[in-house]
Design goal:
alpha/beta, 18 helices, about 50% helix
């Protein structure tokens, strides 16, 4: 028992002396574990409540302590990994500190329920966890060597973000859309995929505009290609039209990050009197930071020229009106890649329905399926589109 207490004393001392990974002490699981270790070691008394509090925090993320510690270490955002991402070389004393702290965390990751239950003599069984063989030193080195694919901080944990108060915030329930679940529009998707893959590989990629009829899969295509190349270090940050002024600052911040980013604007359309397109125009035209190889701007719109134009817009006594309208109408031309998504004809619409039916295990004669799909498109009032096809299949599944 004295040996276990000495081990826990040493581990608590090691945790308390963390410098590189000091942010981990605020982690709820590691914080609860640190409190438990301190009580077990220094005071030599077993506290059931502290033990249960630690296990409760761990269970929120699974029952494997080793994997949790590994994930926490690899995703920790600290000055060392940020410096490494920028190619910085650290002094030998800092490198030694990293090694020593990883050794401490390795031992923490292998703590067993038996070691932390010593001093407990009640007959009521306590909740336990499991440990797995992990090598924190090797895994962390792999993260550093492949920082352009893994990233750090919340960018290592999540793929899709929104902008809130100027800060990228992870999407709690991101769209899991996959390319294999989309049918039709192969030529359009191939163009978007090729451009996105170039971005993910660190090559020159174009800013992209996906425009066309509603419900044709423009937004789904963007999210699907991000999910497809996320393992290569691709991330998406969605902004609203009202946040276009934040683009320059956002680009400056992201340009130093080793990952690749799509700044995404969904359903982008401007109306008369709106002047928030200036920042977008500047970014598309290519300032120094805007043309960083790790960033591309993707937008979707139901309008090719991104502007709601009426005959009244062409009239009036404003001598600069024509210049303003031309500036708006030429905005789409500043996207290097422009991909059109138009409503499918009956043949293409039926083909999409047939593929969706097959993927959902619906066994229905083609003629009957085609007739029902066409009737649904007419009765719904939405016309033929991939969205209508999906809604029709969902209804069939519900009825079956």
């Amino acid at each position: 028992m004295s040996n276990i207490r000495e081990k826990l004393d040493d581990l608590y001392c090691g945790l308390s002396s963390l410098a590189i990974f000091r942010g981990l002490l605020k982690d709820p699981v590691i914080s609860a574990l640190s409190k438990l270790i301190a009580e077990q070691g220094e005071h030599g008394s077993f506290n059931v409540s502290s033990y249960a509090a630690f296990v409760s925090e761990l269970y929120k993320h699974g029952s494997d302590l080793s994997k949790y510690i590994l994930r926490a270490v690899c995703e920790d955002e600290n000055f060392y990994i940020i410096g490494k991402a920028k190619g910085k070389d650290f002094e030998e004393c800092v490198e030694m500190a990293v090694q020593n702290e990883l050794d401490v965390l390795q031992k923490i990751a292998q703590l067993t329920p038996e070691e932390l239950q010593f001093g407990y003599y009640r007959c009521i069984p306590l909740p336990e966890w499991k440990c797995s063989p992990v090598d924190l030193v090797a895994e962390y080195k792999n993260r550093i060597d492949n920082i352009d694919k893994y990233g750090y901080g919340h960018f290592a944990k999540h793929t899709m973000f929104i902008l809130r108060n100027g800060e990228p915030v992870p999407v709690r329930y991101p769209d899991p859309q996959r390319l294999s679940e989309l049918f039709g529009y192969e030529r359009q998707r191939q163009a978007v995929m090729a451009n996105t893959r170039a971005l993910a590989e660190g090559k020159h990629a174009q800013n992209a505009l996906l425009y066309g009829d509603a419900g044709t899969g423009k937004s789904s295509t963007v999210k699907a290609v991000v999910n497809e190349y996320a393992h290569m270090g691709l991330r998406l940050i969605e902004i609203t039209k009202e946040q276009l002024r934040d683009i320059p600052v956002l680009i400056d911040r992201l340009s130093e990050n080793p990952l690749k980013f799509i700044i995404y604007i969904d359903d982008l359309t401007f109306s008369e009197g709106e002047n928030c397109f200036g920042a977008l125009k500047a970014a598309l035209e290519g300032s120094v930071s805007a043309r960083a190889r790790n960033i591309a701007i993707y937008a979707t719109s139901n309008r090719r020229h991104l502007v709601k134009e009426s005959f009244s817009d062409r009239e009036g006594d404003d001598v600069h009106r024509n210049d303003t309208m031309q500036e708006l109408l030429s905005l789409s031309a500043r996207f290097g890649l422009r991909v059109s998504f138009s409503r499918p004809d009956k043949k293409d619409y039926t083909a999409i329905v047939a593929e969706l039916a097959k993927s959902h295990g619906i066994d229905m004669p083609f003629e009957e399926l085609s007739l029902k799909a066409e009737q649904f498109a007419i009765s719904s009032g939405n016309g033929r589109s991939p969205r209508t096809a999906k809604q029709f299949i969902n209804q069939l599944v519900m009825e079956m």
